[in-house]
Design goal:
By secondary structure, this protein is α/β, with parallel strands linked by helices. The chain is about 40% helix and about 20% strand. Strand 10 and strand 11 form a beta hairpin. The N and C termini lie far apart (about 35 Å).
Length: about 210
């Protein structure tokens, strides 16, 4: 089972590493870290992650995982978008985390599908013909999208259950001791104090 994790500069590390810690444990997992050009990619927190292979060298993956971050470069790279379109034709599952869904959307893959993304970017999905859904993980056919950064683990477990069954997915969850008990209940704009939401909204607006 060939699994392609897309890497690019200014991606968010946990968007990729969260699902990897889950999906990489599936039976027969053959993991590939790919990029338009192989080499070290610097995340939005300057962590170096290495893409061992070029996307053109990894054809017909069974699973594609597209992380988010600063998606503007990848979402306008026609070589990458063409690869996603081609890969999607034969994948069993095409997935994304956070604003990675905007990269999928830019390729046309999400047109007419329900999908999710980071709460700040939700409205942008509709610009590409997708139907935004404010849920942590959204499945529509063979496409699975996840909301903000930490939801990539949830997406990975959802995918693991589809591939290897719920008992196997539960075993992975136990093995990585994924038992979220956050110290604060401020993980979504519906729960966080309104003034904090506005601070974050201003921060993201200034980054765009």
């Amino acid at each position: 089972m060939k699994i392609a994790f897309l890497l690019y500069d200014n991606m968010t590390a946990l968007d990729m590493i969260g699902p990897y810690e889950v999906v990489g444990r599936l039976p027969g997992a053959d993991v590939h870290f790919v990029a338009v050009e192989p080499g070290v990619k610097r995340t939005d927190q300057n962590l170096g992650l290495t893409a061992d292979e070029a996307i053109d060298d990894v054809s017909s993956p069974d699973i594609v995982v597209v992380p988010g971050g600063d998606e503007r470069g990848p979402a306008s790279d026609e070589r990458l978008l063409d690869w996603l379109r081609s890969a999607h034709e034969t994948t069993t599952w095409t997935t994304s985390v956070c604003t990675g869904s905007l990269i999928l959307a830019a390729s046309g893959i999400l047109k007419g599908l329900k999908a999710t993304t980071h709460w700040f970017a939700m409205d942008r999905l509709a610009e590409f013909g997708a139907t935004p859904v404010s849920e942590r993980v959204v499945e529509d056919g063979k496409v699975i999208t996840a909301a903000g950064v930490s939801s990539g683990i949830d997406m990975g477990l959802t995918l693991a259950a589809r591939v290897a069954g719920e008992d196997f997915a539960r075993g992975i969850q136990l093995g990585i001791e994924y038992d979220p008990q956050p110290p604060f209940d401020a993980g979504s704009p519906d729960k966080a104090p309104p003034e904090l939401v506005e601070v974050l909204r201003g921060y993201y607006t200034n980054r765009v």
